[in-house]
Amino acid sequence: MSGRERILGRVRRALADVPRDDTPYERAVVRDYLPEHGERTVDGTVDLLAENLADYRAVVHRTDADGLPGVIAGLLAARGASTVLVPPGLDEEWLAAAEVTLVADRAESTPAELDRVDSVVTACAVAVAETGTIVLDGSPDQGRRRITLVPDHHICVVRVPDQVVSSVPKALRRLDPARPLTWISGPSATSDIELDRVEGVHGPRTLEVVLVG
């Protein structure tokens, strides 16, 4: 018996005494909470996202579509990156100005191989202003989850205002729960009992977010 079969068996046993006409899960919980806190303009929502990203120690940059390749090239050069991991669906123009070796997102890549990559560049699915959170869903321009968890430097491009929402409830409406969702609020970090902060524990030490208007 596989682990999957064992877990599903336990779920079935737990649900064995639930009446067939029981209230469906979607209606069992009252969700009458506010979809967002207050009212903001589009520009105000984007500004709040930038503020909260920075509060989480992400590095925020702003540019337009024409300036994006130059910004990415500059960030990689400042980092001294020579190898960059790219998802298969990433817009090639984004890295057109960067003098780096591109590394493909391969299923057979080992953690050690990914650890040797200097940087990774991805798009995102949605960005949440109130929490300063970037969400990846494994789409072709974002790649597998692990490519943003192993390399030490992640550049994430957010298209504004189209990909920016004010709150988590609004983000959930845009996301497919069946996809591999990764919620990122700043670079990976933790702290011990003395509150000494350590970055890069289970993800990149440096997260740079480029807001493209």
Automatic annotation (TrEMBL):
Q: Which Gene3D superfamilies match?
A: NagB/RpiA/CoA transferase-like (3.40.50.10420)
| Record-given protein name | LUD domain-containing protein
Q: What is the lineage of its organism?
A: Bacteria, Bacillati, Actinomycetota, Actinomycetes, Kitasatosporales
Which Pfam families does the entry link to?
LUD_dom (PF02589)
User: Superkingdom of the source?
Assistant: Bacteria
Which InterPro entries does the entry mention? FTHF_cligase-like_sf, LUD_dom, NagB/RpiA_transferase-like
Q: Which SUPFAM superfamilies match?
A: NagB/RpiA/CoA transferase-like
Where is the LUD domain positioned along the sequence?
A: 91-212
